[in-house]
Design goal:
Layout lengths: L1 H23 L19 E2 L1 H11 L2 E7 L4 H10 L3 H10 E7 L5 E4 L2 E4 H8 L7 E5 L5 E6 L4 H12 L16
Parallel strand pairs: 1-3, 2-3
Antiparallel strand pairs: 2-6, 4-5, 6-7
Length: 178
């Protein structure tokens, strides 16, 4: 288990180093003149697209089950999903999907056709909006978070998932197993 984590961390550092080196200079050898452009909105995907993208990028999936008539869903959109820290974390560390719990829009999940409404109600058991689901990059469900959540609570939940704290099986004081 520790060897796997070490290998994943090593691959991460190697990739990060490659990105830094590749982005540091333009082909002419000069520093890139373009300033960093911050995305000021969350990039939302359809659920079926998000599953594929997350698998390709090895990122967690954040699913926002919403409805047009839902007041607290609109409040999340206005107050929480406009916070730059939330935007950055969702765009950088997750693949985000928005599913309309009333929509008859059909999704194609590897040949399995289902409407957004049926996905929300039958597959995820959503009974109220908003409901947020966290998934691993392979689509494995980690768990839901229901109802309106203020920015600080949502940041805490996203950080917990991003840092894979749900997967922690050791403590600081636990001796290493050999």
């Amino acid at each position: 288990m520790r060897l796997t984590k070490l290998l994943v961390f090593s691959l991460f550092l190697t990739g990060l180093f490659a990105l830094i080196v590749a982005g540091a200079e333009t082909p002419s050898g000069n520093k890139s003149p373009e300033p960093d452009k911050k995305n000021t909105t969350i990039t939302w995907h359809a659920y079926d697209v998000a599953l594929k993208k997350a698998a390709e990028e090895d990122k967690h999936i954040f699913v926002d089950f919403t409805a047009k008539w839902c007041g607290y869903c609109r409040k999340m959109d206005r107050e929480v999903f406009t916070d730059q820290r939330i935007i950055d974390m969702l765009n950088d560390d997750f693949v985000s999907a928005k599913v309309d719990g009333d929509s008859r829009n059909e999704l194609d999940i590897d040949g399995y056709k289902i409407t957004e409404s049926d996905l929300a109600r039958r597959e995820y058991g959503v009974r109220g909006f908003p409901t947020f689901w966290f998934l691993k990059s392979d689509g494995t469900r980690l768990g839901p978070l229901g109802g309106y959540r203020p920015t600080d609570v949502m940041l805490e939940a996203l950080t917990w998932i991003k840092e894979r704290q749900y997967d922690s099986t050791t403590t600081e004081n636990e001796p290493e197993k050999k």
